[in-house]
Structure formats: structure tokens, C-alpha cells
């Protein structure tokens, strides 16, 4: 069977099997973020490696979130939110915000913007954004955002996730 035949078989059965799809994306490094917002007067946050830049003019970005996520009801109702781009020493923060069934904000290490959205202290940068669209795609939603404000720290390296492991990038990894 040729590679083309394999592709045709996957398409006929509804696409590439989830295990194979996940295996491909484990080999694709991604920056690590925490999405933070307020819902019913309480902070809500979760780890996301799906954040992408969509357009510089206007300043648009997006992320995906599973429809069954415990954070989805808050995102579904949100008008604005903040995206904190984690620094290379914040792997513990990423793990905490990826854990279900806990108060992810209880350990501290965050503050609120003047507009109320929570951001992670010590992050490389953050963006405050207005939710433009929530588009159902498969078992997830693609959430499109308009960036409204930003903050950046110089000289701080980002946290990267690759093959189920956190990594640091910097001068040592430059080509």
C-alpha cells in the first residue's frame, strides 16, 4: 500500500486516527500560555499550547479549547480575557493550570489587570483581548480574539512544550 493509499483510507474512515494525529503534534514544539478570565466574580484559568497569531493588522490571535473542558462555560460567556505567555521557569505554573479539580489560583503568583483579568506574575508577556468569535470545530471551539493591550518583559526566555516535556530555549539552542 502506498502513502497515498494510506491517506485515502484515513479520509474514508473519517480522517487520521487520533493517536497518529497526537503523535505528529507531540513533535511540534509550542509556546506555553495560561488563559485567564473572570467568570461569575471568580478567576478562571487554564494552560493552552494552542495559541496562534492570526494577523498583525488588526492584532488578532486565537486558541482552541475542548468543548468538554471545565473552563469552556467561562470562555463561552467571556467578553475579554488575558493570555500570559509563560517564562522558562514556570513549568510548575503550567502544570497547575492544566490540573483539573483544583483551585488553580490558590497558590498565588498572579495579579489582575486594571480591567480585572488575571495574568501570571513573571510571565514573558501578556495580551488582554476581546473575544470576537467562538467557532465550533470538531469537539473543540476555536476562539478568535482582538488584542487590546500588552505587556512584555525583556531578557526572559519562554517556556516551550515538546513531546510531553517542558523545554527552555535560549542562546544555547540557537542555530
From TrEMBL:
Spans traversing the lipid bilayer: none
Record's signal peptide: none
InterPro entries per the UniProt record, alphabetical: Flavin_Rdtase-like_dom, NADH-dep_flavin_reductase, Split_barrel_FMN-bd
EC number annotated for this UniProt entry: 1.-.-.-
Record's keyword annotation contains Oxidoreductase: yes
Pfam families registered for this protein in UniProt: Flavin_Reduct (PF01613)
Protein origin, superkingdom: Bacteria
Keywords tagged on the record: Oxidoreductase
GO molecular function, one term: oxidoreductase activity
Segments forming domain Flavin reductase like: 25-168
PANTHER family: FLAVIN REDUCTASE, FMN REDUCTASE (NADH) RUTF
Protein name: Flavin reductase family protein
Organism per entry: Streptomyces millisiae
Amino acid at each position: 500500500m502506498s502513502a497515498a493509499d494510506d491517506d485515502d483510507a484515513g479520509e474514508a474512515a473519517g480522517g487520521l486516527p487520533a493517536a497518529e494525529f497526537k503523535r505528529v503534534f507531540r513533535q511540534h514544539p509550542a509556546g506555553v500560555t495560561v488563559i485567564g478570565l473572570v467568570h461569575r466574580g471568580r478567576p478562571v484559568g487554564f494552560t493552552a499550547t494552542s495559541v496562534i497569531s492570526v494577523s498583525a493588522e488588526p492584532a488578532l490571535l486565537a486558541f482552541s479549547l475542548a468543548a468538554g473542558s471545565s473552563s469552556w462555560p467561562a470562555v463561552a460567556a467571556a467578553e475579554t480575557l488575558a493570555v500570559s505567555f509563560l517564562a522558562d521557569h514556570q513549568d510548575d505554573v503550567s502544570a497547575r493550570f492544566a490540573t483539573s479539580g483544583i483551585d488553580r489560583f490558590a497558590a498565588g503568583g498572579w495579579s489582575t489587570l486594571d480591567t480585572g483579568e488575571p495574568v501570571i506574575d513573571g510571565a514573558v508577556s501578556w495580551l488582554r483581548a476581546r473575544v470576537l468569535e467562538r467557532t465550533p470545530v470538531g469537539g473543540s471551539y476555536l476562539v478568535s480574539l482582538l488584542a487590546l493591550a500588552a505587556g512584555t518583559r525583556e531578557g526572559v526566555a519562554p517556556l516551550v512544550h515538546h513531546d510531553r516535556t517542558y523545554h527552555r530555549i535560549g542562546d544555547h539552542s540557537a542555530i
